[in-house]
Amino acid sequence: MAKGNSHDFTSKRHNSSFHWTRKVGSDENDDVSSTHNPLPDHNNSKPASKHTPSSSSSSSSSNVITQKRKLQSFAVSRLRSVIATLSRARPGHHHSGLGSRVVGTLFGSRRGHVHFSIQKDPNSPPAFLIELATPISGLVKEMASGLVRIALECDKGKEEDEGEEKNKTLRHGGGDKTKTTTATAAISRRLVEEPMWRTYCNGKKCGFATRRECGEKEKKVLKALEMVSMGAGVLPETEDTGGDGGGDVMYMRAKFERIVGSRDSEAFYMMNPDSNGAPELSIYLLRI
Fold first, then answer.
1. Where is this region: Disordered (predicted)?
2. Residue 208 and residue 139: Cα distance in Å, rounded?
3. DSSP 8-state secondary structure symbol assigned to residue 128
């Protein structure tokens, strides 16, 4: 009886192992068949999800990067257009980029008026050249008596006032923003480009000063002074100094410190070689 039970138990174990072997083998065969089948089963296969979390995050990040690149390229193009507009509005003034140290020259014939020029260096063309109504002899007397303060004042034009009002309106969110370029061009004139100035010397009104283009006579004087970095003297009246019968040319050249207060105010202080005491000559430009 015991032998019959053990035989049945053994046969059951054999049958169970046989079925497990068949099952594993069938699974392996299914995997192999699914691997070697190049075509998917349209009846049994489930549709894959269209969006996964990783793909959605990567697509959103790529969209953000693309938008940033578009904004950067748009900003660069706008900046280039503004620079091009300003350069067209002010042709011929590529030399007007002055620094904090400039070369200032006062010159004029003995029987003529004072000319004052500002240059970036002795070899560069003048960025600012005016003719004062003051005779050169009168300025020499003033400088011999002590410190000299020359104030040059000009008025804001009507277009400049209107342009500033438009810019204020645009900054506060009002008005037509398409007129920004027009308003900017109306006030784009630099202070050293003003044509007419009222002149005050040590508080006394001395007529008017006029902006001049650098003509042949002025070019010859500045050419003769290229080797002079600082000092005062007299140039004999010759063809090289543009002599026109007004006598010898008196000059004074020095380095000036340029201080910009705003777009409507600048100051030039003559730098003393010993760096002691107040500057002997100061020139102020004011647009009021």
1. 1-66, 157-180
2. 15
3. E
